[in-house]
Write a structure and sequence with these properties.
Helix content of chain A: 25-40%
Shape of chain A: elongated
Oligomer: homodimer
Number of domains of chain A: 2
Strand order of the largest sheet of chain A: 1-2-9-4-7
Largest sheet of chain A: 5 strands, antiparallel
Distance between the termini of chain A: 38 Å
Chain lengths: 233, 233
DNA sequence: CGTTATGTTGACCTCCTTCAAAGGCTGTGG
DNA sequence: CCACAGCCTTTGAAGGAGGTCAACATAACG
């Protein structure tokens, strides 16, 4: 936990008009004029791997939209462990509890180098009330968050560890053609509710069986058919 | 699965103005006049135990607010089992995916005899757009739903089965003075991601250890201290 | 009063955790 | 450039927790 990894780095004031991922994030329905009328600053931040966006229990002044990368929302357990309850990717929003004036309900940490935009609570509340498209987009994010929570319960917390791991790999998208950088064994354990050792053993077994191949560095490619078959049970 | 248990019973057109739990449900901020201006019918339904409010995958024309009782939201597993992903009580809302025009994401079934109000999608969408208090109440329900999902992941799907069961009993509120009617062993299993047999064994052990007492019929009273201690690990 | 769901208990075996040790990778300082 | 520390990963052995299958008990119900 080095000091240079604990905080995201400020990149600059966000230029939403020119944002190349605007269609994926909250403000896709806003006109140039409407974007200009935002008074408070929306900051563009770069969160290096392991950077902490915010911590559970602290006051929540802003929400974060993910432009690229992968963010985990975790909750610390009384016994010292942790449980990851959500994974956020491009277009997802972290810290929506801000809108209800509460403190953050999770700790948000970057699993990969990520780009995020930090939107002050007042900005989003005003847009939510004045702009139907933003309002609709917000409802969608909330729904998406609930859907993902369901997935964590049903797919990642149910059944034998091997099946859960297969479902996790599918969820992470490493069945596609592109190789994916996987989270650490410890994070896999926190995602699935199993120990780090079990996560390591299962991954090792998957490699031996040829279900996953490490292509280069940390990146892996997976066997879609084999994994989906394992995921069933 | 008898036919008389599969559907909720129509009780009457809801009289929101006179509703004794109105302060707990979505319309607490509406005036009498605003309530009168609702054109489409809000129906008051009684859902007997095991009654099905709606089924996953069907088109979603309405949301349901819970006036009393206990509703489970479940998802069927590919292997024939089921997993309960949410429990709804007084003031909670089921089927909010309706607002995004989607099909239901869960199957909603009454765990106890329950009273619910069925609100047509159009009514809620209009109120959401025209009335800030309803809008705020909706955001709150979404947040509450996400919070409960977190609880299902962190408290009910993490750690040894015994600790999870202790947390479930605390969640169900049977540490209070009032005796509580517990769900079936099968539902406990579906809540915790364990088998019915394990749920039964753990409950039997709790009774032997004096952690829970069956007071009368299905009602039980629990030992708060003992359970909270078990819940830690 | 038989029939059917629901709960309980036992035996067995698999899966997962725990504790421990060793291997591999990376960055740092000599 | 190499040695070494620190971290992550892997692997082993042992024990316990939970699943599975089966039998039985109990309660609910027509």
């Amino acid at each position: 936990m080095k000091p240079n990894c604990t905080n995201p780095e400020w990149v600059g004031r966000a230029k939403c008009v020119a944002c190349e991922v605007r269609n994926f994030v909250l403000f896709s329905g806003l006109t140039t004029h409407e974007l200009d009328s935002i008074l408070q600053p929306i900051d563009n931040l770069h969160a290096a791997q392991h950077a902490v966006l915010y911590e559970k229990g602290t006051v929540a002044p802003s929400v974060y939209t993910v432009r690229s990368g992968l963010i985990k929302l975790k909750i610390d357990l009384p016994n010292g462990g942790q449980r990851i309850v959500r994974l956020l990717r491009q277009g997802d929003v972290a810290g929506m509890e801000t809108l209800l004036g509460e403190r953050y309900h999770h700790t948000a940490i970057a699993l990969q180098d990520s780009d995020v935009c930090r939107i002050p609570r007042e900005v989003l509340m005003r847009l939510d009330q004045t702009n139907p498209s933003v309002h609709q987009a917000l409802l969608q994010r909330w729904q998406r968050s609930a859907d993902q929570a369901d997935h964590f319960i049903v797919a990642l917390s149910t059944g034998p560890a091997e099946a859960r791991m297969a479902r996790l790999l599918i969820t992470l998208g490493c069945v596609g053609d592109h190789p994916e950088t996987l989270p650490s064994r410890e994070d896999m354990g926190a995602l699935l509710g199993i120990t780090t050792e079990t996560a390591s053993r299962i991954m090792a077994a998957f490699k031996r069986r040829g279900l996953v191949h490490t292509s280069r560095g940390n990146e892996v490619v997976c066997d879609p058919l084999g994994l989906t078959q394992l995921a069933r049970q």
